[in-house]
Design a protein that fits this description.
Layout: E1 4-8, H1 14-23, H2 47-59, E2 64-70, E3 73-81, H3 92-98, E4 104-111, H4 120-134, E5 139-142, H5 162-167, E6 171-176, E7 180-186
């Protein structure tokens, strides 16, 4: 995998995002990476409705992600956005009682099953940070799994691991829920 590049999710790259999500049945049971967006009546009504909701968010510039390409094929994404774009985080009251509200949140990663265990989440994270920098930067917050060195099923690693955020120079700010933590970085 030496021909990697990052592109921003937008209407021009939608078809590539769509192809990756469809390959994996809409991702996590048809989420289409909408779980952290504001709740909508069309969300989870059907996979097609959820897909349409995500596309509408992209068209309205209310959905951001760093897409990782291997050549011409999108193989990974890292979703990010403002707290207004991504308000639906787990343990929100706990997080917001401990911290000031960040400028940006990183809420999920997805790696094509044929490209896992190759460091693409870290590559996607750095791509998202570069896109955030280009959008003006600020405080970036995320809530990765704190594996504490244990092996964890990929299905629980939707927000990456504490290790990759530490590798990207994020600061550990404390626990969030049972198995996650709050990580922050200024860009």
């Amino acid at each position: 995998m030496q021909n990697l590049s990052i592109k921003e999710l937008n209407i021009e790259t939608w078809k590539d995002f769509e192809q990756l999500a469809q390959k994996h049945n809409g991702v996590w049971g048809g989420c289409w990476c909408t779980a952290f967006h504001p709740k909508s009546p069309e969300q989870r009504k059907s996979q097609e409705a959820t897909k349409s909701y995500k596309r509408r968010l992209v068209e309205e510039d209310r959905a951001h992600a760093a897409l990782v390409y291997d050549g011409d094929t999108c193989v990974t994404w890292c979703q990010f956005g403002s707290p207004q774009e991504l308000p639906t985080i787990y343990h929100k009251k706990e997080v917001e009682s401990k911290m000031t509200i960040p400028d940006w949140r990183i809420t999920c990663f997805f790696v094509d099953r044929d490209h896992r265990k190759k460091g693409l989440s870290f590559y996607a994270l750095n791509g998202a940070l570069e896109l955030i920098k280009n959008l003006g930067g600020g405080v970036v917050e995320s809530y990765p799994q704190d594996t504490q060195g244990k092996k964890i099923s990929n299905s629980f690693l939707y927000n990456g691991t504490r290790d990759i955020f530490e590798k990207a120079d994020f600061n550990y700010e404390g626990k969030k829920g049972k198995n996650h933590c709050i990580m922050r970085k200024m860009i």
